[in-house]
Design a protein that fits this description.
This protein is of the alpha/beta class. The chain is 45% helix and 23% strand. It contains seven helices and eleven strands. β7, α3 and β8 form a beta-alpha-beta unit. The radius of gyration is 26 Å and the shape is flat. Belongs to the eIF-3 subunit F family.
């Protein structure tokens, strides 16, 4: 057999630029679904919703669990429930489409290929997101995969999951909650003041880094970077100019508004409690 007649075993690669952005709401929702799962269920699977950005990045913004039963050689999904949930979500946000599916556990499992085959009919090149709710490595490991075809000549033999880059985008308040969620055990959830204190500490650390960088550039220890300089300039220019008295008044007004809300909520709870007791007494009499 000549070299030109050799049959080559090859992978059909996914787009090299494919990556995914995951919003923290998706992770929190997956963890909540895992906590509320049926007692006999070992893991939770569900649908990922979002959109594909112009650069090819998959933007994952929402999710919902799908009831299922699985054994060693088969997986049964509640297709009607999946389609009903999709229709309900798209009534609220029609721009969100199916971009993949998720499962809890460390990496892919034996039934993942069967589930991925179903979602491949629902979306083009779906993303498989895994969330390690069992803290196998002491952390809530989050990974993303796509399916890569293994072919022999013109015949497709099997598929393989290939990991893709994940970008977990979150604001500081969401990061505090996620950091707490990643720990295997916590004494208690931080309150508002503790969360604000943690945010202020991180902000001060970042400001110290900026000060150090500027001093190093001014004293010639580092080469100047125009992009960083413009970014720092834009950041400083975006800070509103407030006097100390105006800033103090703004903070005090905000605190007073929150105290009023707490007072009104306390009155509402008291009235509901009294109404419930009066209704109970009336039924007894």
């Amino acid at each position: 057999m000549s070299a030109g007649e050799l049959t080559v075993l090859q992978f059909t690669p996914s787009p090299t630029s494919l990556s995914a952005k995951v919003h923290p709401l998706v992770i929190f929702n997956i963890c909540d679904c895992f906590v509320r799962r049926p007692d006999q269920a070992e893991r939770v699977i569900g649908t990922l919703l979002g959109s594909v950005l112009p650069d090819g990045t998959v933007d994952i913004r929402n999710s919902y669990a799908v009831p299922h039963n699985e054994s060693l050689d088969q997986v049964a999904l509640d297709i009607d429930y999946h389609h009903n949930m999709l229709a309900s979500h798209q009534k609220v946000n029609p721009k969100e489409v199916i971009v993949g599916w998720f499962s809890t556990g460390f990496g892919v499992s034996g039934g993942s290929a069967l589930i991925h085959e179903f979602y491949s009919r629902e979306a083009t090149n779906p993303v498989h997101l895994t969330v390690d709710t069992g803290f196998t490595n002491g952390d809530a490991t989050i990974k993303g995969f796509v399916s890569v075809n293994l072919s022999l000549g013109d015949h497709q033999l099997a598929s393989q999951f290939q990991e893709i880059p994940l970008d977990l985008r979150m604001v500081e308040a969401e990061r505090i909650g996620f950091d707490v969620l990643k720990k295997t055990a916590v004494d208690k959830l931080p309150n508002d003041l503790e969360g604000m204190e943690d945010s202020m500490k991180k902000l001060l650390a970042l400001i110290d880094d900026v000060y150090k960088y500027v001093d190093d550039v001014v004293e010639g220890r580092l080469a100047p970077d125009n992009n960083i300089g413009r970014f720092i300039s834009d950041t400083v220019a975006s800070i509103p100019k407030l006097s100390s008295s105006a800033f103090e008044k703004l903070v005090n007004d905000s605190i007073q508004d929150q105290l009023v809300l707490l007072y009104l909520s306390s009155i509402t709870r008291t009235q509901l409690s009294l109404a419930e007791k009066l209704n109970t007494a009336a039924q007894i009499l």
